[in-house]
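Batch manifest line 246
LIGAND: magnesium ion
JOB: complex structure
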Amino acid sequence: MMNIRSILLISLVCLLSGFISSSAQTANWLPELTETWEPVPKSVNPAPYFNPPSDAIQLFDENYLNKWEDADKWNFEDGVLTVEPGTGGIRTMEAYSSVQLFMEWRIPENVDGDDQRRGNSGIFLQGLYEVQILDSYNNTTYTNGQAGSVYKQYPPMVNASLPPGQWQSYHIIFNAPVFAEDGNLARPAYLTVFHNGILIQNHVEVKGPTIYTGLPQYELHPYKMPIFIQGSRHEISFRNMWIREI
Ligand code: MG
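JOB STATUS: finished
ARTIFACT:
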């Protein structure tokens, strides 16, 4: 069920969209215009993790500094890479197109804040298309910004979140967008995501690069691009991130 707030916002968006045809013209929008709050995805109990298959590349082993640009600013111990708050994100040295990607992440047990200010990170496929990382165990925010959302585009089908302090996993299948020779979009990107083993995004059509304000719009970019992990003001940890090109 939608509340009055959602209905009013959607009405406003519809009204505005009659006059505005491209994201370039949405520069003055408020971020709230692209937030959805209801219906809230129901909670389900999660399932186990995956070890890397033999042909996967492990991105968080002892050679991680050769695989991530600028990653020495974060803290690495026993295969666990932990964000040093305030230092920004990290990017893979290697560029990728379509991938199968698995990763484990952990929000610190003592996380504070609420809404989007509670363990906010994210995994950006090709550095552009974000699957949101957030503590969504007991934390209300706009649904298309909670853990497992394709940020500002699709809420997760269910909320498979575990409490802060516990390891959680994403298993992602990303089909990169295809651009025609003239630079126009020939085929959009698609995302499938399992959160803690539960399907939460089922081959959703990505609407364009993740943006905070306004509507996304595709722009020509290279066939292969590095993967980006967003920094955070919280000490979020990552481990067992492996990748297979598809
Ligand atoms: Mg994020």
